[in-house]
Specification:
alpha/beta; TIM Barrel; 2 domains; eight-stranded parallel β-barrel; two-stranded antiparallel ribbon; 16 helices; about 45% helix; EC 5.3.1.5; carbohydrate metabolism
């Protein structure tokens, strides 16, 4: 034991509790025939919880953690604290990048050796912990070598380094029986066309992804391969901007049946969408895989990665997840970090517990709305005209024939209310 969290006890479900506990999230509560834990599949993000130092664009580190340091002893201590936190939260999953868990070595070989040692530690700890791996991924954005991208870098040596890094992370994810592998293209974009060959970069990104899919099959990885949509930051133009952009990319390279998406709330907002829009589109396209549940400060123009605290937003998000049939390999990862003034160890636990409660409240509201057909019945009514034989026949007809019918039948459509305020009021009754 590291004693980082002192005498804090594992959290339990206690609706009337005063200290850190779950007031709404009961992992054993049955919702729509399944335990809530199995529906929500919560995961802790290793990077924000244990690697984030409390900095922001205008100031550096504010946190003082006993594992901060660029040596293996610090990395081992970090792993000890991480699994203690997983146990305190009784969380079923975690996620990591390679750079979160190991120090950078003087060479690729040394970095790989450091990484594999920590994976050994994870494997041993997972033998006695309930916490599994939701997904692994590679950090192809922090080091200065990635300043012009990874798969889209103009330097082929960076492409090679990136490929080797992803291979190592996929091997580790497979070894730890991870449910997914995620590609997060934080720098797969460009600042200006003055120095960019867009066609070549996009082609290289497609070839890189094909290699990832092929390698997953080669090693027998049975989880899902996911891409995370990432707009605007840090580069001005991103090749993986939103769900629609990614789906077009996947279609171009014949990967639409091989790769799904991991959608983050904060990224959806930066792309000019709502979270539920991105989830609904992914559902309609058949590529919804997993989610990162966080929020942005809507007065800021960047990704602030805050814990969720808005029940109506989470309810609408989980409504779309449920309409898609729920998670299979995916889950709810908290890609969220403490505010730089939240210094205490207990803040880490409180932040996650509060977020899990918010998600539970939203999820139960979503499940009840779906069960009651509170939104589905009005939606069906609005489109009921399309169920008529003549409307269906029109879709396989032609413009001339449709025109003749309009004239012959004297069709004169009148507008009907979309009843948005009524439907918003319905949602409010549930949340």
């Amino acid at each position: 034991m590291t004693n980082f969290f002192g005498d804090l006890a594992p959290l339990t479900f206690d609706p009337e509790g005063e200290g850190p506990c779950f007031r709404h999230y009961d992992p054993d509560e049955i919702v729509l025939g399944k335990r809530m834990e199995d529906h929500l599949r919560f995961a802790v993000a290793y990077w924000h919880s244990f690697a984030f130092e409390g900095g922001d664009p205008f100031g550096g580190r504010t946190f003082d953690r006993p594992w901060f340091g660029e040596d293996m002893e610090a990395a081992r201590r970090k792993a000890d604290v991480a699994f203690e936190m997983f146990d305190l939260l009784n969380v079923p999953f975690f996620c990591f990048h390679d750079a979160d868990i190991r120090p950078e070595g003087a060479s690729f070989t040394e970095s790989l050796r450091n990484f594999e040692e920590i994976i050994d530690i994870f494997e041993r700890k997972m033998e006695t912990s309930k916490t599994r791996l939701l997904w692994g991924t590679a950090n192809l954005f922090s080091n200065r070598r990635f300043m012009a991208g990874a798969a889209t870098n103009p330097d082929p040596d960076v492409f090679a380094w990136s490929a080797a890094t992803v291979k190592a992370c996929m091997d580790a994810t497979h070894r730890l029986k991870g449910a997914n592998y995620v590609l997060w293209g934080g720098r797969e974009g460009y600042e200006t066309l003055l120095n960019t060959d867009m066609g070549r970069e996009r082609e290289h990104a497609g070839r890189f992804l094909c290699m990832v899919v092929d390698y997953a099959k080669k090693i027998g990885f049975e989880g899902s391969i996911l891409i995370e949509p990432k707009p605007q930051e840090p580069t001005k133009h991103q090749y993986d901007y939103d769900v629609a952009t990614i789906y077009g990319f996947l279609k171009d390279f014949g990967l639409e049946n091989e790769v799904k998406v991991n959608i983050e709330q904060g990224h959806a907002i930066l792309a000019g969408h709502s979270f539920e829009h991105e989830l609904a589109l992914a559902r309609e396209l058949g590529v919804l895989g997993s989610i990162d549940m966080n929020r942005n400060d809507y007065q800021s123009g960047w990704d602030t990665d805050q814990f969720p605290n808005n029940v109506p937003e989470t309810a609408l998000a989980y409504y779309e997840v449920l309409r898609a049939g729920g998670f299979t390999t995916g889950g709810t990862n908290f890609d969220a970090r403490l505010r730089r003034q939240s210094l205490d160890p207990e803040d880490l636990i409180i932040g996650h517990a509060g977020a899990m409660d918010i998600c539970a409240r939203g999820f139960k509201a979503a499940a009840k709305m779906l069960e009651d057909e509170a939104l589905e019945a009005p939606r069906r009514e609005r489109y009921a005209g399309w169920d008529k034989p003549e409307a269906q026949a029109m879709l396989s007809s032609d413009l001339a024939s449709i025109s003749e019918r309009v004239i012959a039948e004297g069709i004169d459509p009148q507008p009907r209310s979309g009843r948005q305020e009524y439907l918003e009021d319905i949602v409010n009754r549930y949340v």
